[in-house]
Design a protein that fits this description.
With 190 residues, the protein is mainly alpha-helical. The protein is built from nine helices and no strands.
């Protein structure tokens, strides 16, 4: 099995088609990022809609999408290389709104969770393959550094998919906590 088999294009398309009618629904998928989409065109459309919503635009149309997608070289390439190709892709999404679009936040969240879960599984599959290769490296016997590298890699992946907030690790707090404990000691040190 390859990680590329872990995707649901209909769910991805459903997200975009839903957001074309209800752009404010994007506020219900804060953890979802354009990079979590398997299909790069779907990811580019998601990014463009997300950027338009950030700018306060509450009515998404072809012109606003073309303008946003054309503002970044990477999305121009993904969408076909020029404004005509971008417009053709957008029209395809507009035509699919009735079939794939959803009308409730709950339905939208189900689609977003499916895309997020698939993206996480693909990324985890790739990371686990790299970890396997490191375990097979006979020239590296330092299991302490290998363990730290594995844990950091998995933690970073979890942070990317599960939360957008920075996690405050215990190691960053230990000095402050210890100073607090010492400041509450009695004069005799107890």
């Amino acid at each position: 099995m390859k990680s590329s088999s872990i995707h649901d294009i209909k769910a991805e398309r459903g997200i975009i088609c839903t957001l074309l009618s209800y752009p404010h629904f994007i506020l219900n998928s804060e953890n979802l990022k354009a990079s979590h989409f398997y299909d790069k065109k779907n990811g580019s459309m998601y990014w463009a809609i997300q950027e338009l919503v950030k700018k306060g635009i509450d009515k998404i149309d072809s012109l606003s999408l073309i303008t946003q997608l054309s503002s970044r070289n990477g999305t121009i390439k993904v969408m076909g290389g020029n404004n005509d190709a971008i417009e053709k892709e957008i029209q395809g999404f507009i035509c699919d709104k009735k079939e794939f679009g959803r009308s409730t936040v709950e339905e939208y969240k189900l689609l977003a969770n499916q895309v997020l879960a698939n993206g996480f599984k693909r990324a985890m599959y790739e990371v686990m393959g790299k970890i396997q290769n490191k375990c097979l490296d006979v020239s590296n016997d330092d299991i302490g550094s290998l363990n730290i590298e594995i844990m950091d890699t998995i933690n970073n992946l979890a942070i990317d998919y599960i939360t957008q907030e920075n996690i405050d690790y215990f190691g960053r707090k230990v000095d402050t906590l210890w100073q607090n404990i010492e400041s509450k000691r009695n004069p005799d040190g107890t």
